[in-house]
Amino acid sequence: MAKSRRKYSAEFKREAVRLSREPGRTVGEVATNLGVDSGVLHRWRSEMKADGPSAFPGNGRPKASEEEVLQLRKELVRAQQERDILKNYRVRVCALPVDQKLGPCR
Questions:
Q1: I want to staple 61 with a disulfide (CB 3.0 to 4.6 A). Which of 44, 57, 73, 103 is the partner?
Q2: What is the distance between the alpha carbons of residues 105 and 90, in angstroms, rounded to a whole number?
């Protein structure tokens, strides 16, 4: 029977990382005392090192950098749609007879 995944709070992870960084303590020792795998604790340490205080944002919440990327992608899609609308308008206006055109078409 497969084990279900355990969920740890951000506070627990931060405290585990802090304990593992204390002088005289090893990652394996701290992991054993807390009942987590040492590989998991190593991953938490890496995440804390990479993301600092924004590490472990919570279940389903993107990190600040990921959130910014999502926002920028949305803006890009909107700009591309606006560009396509203007392109289509230009094609249609330039296809009109000369006396109906509003401006020069190049």
A1: 57
A2: 8
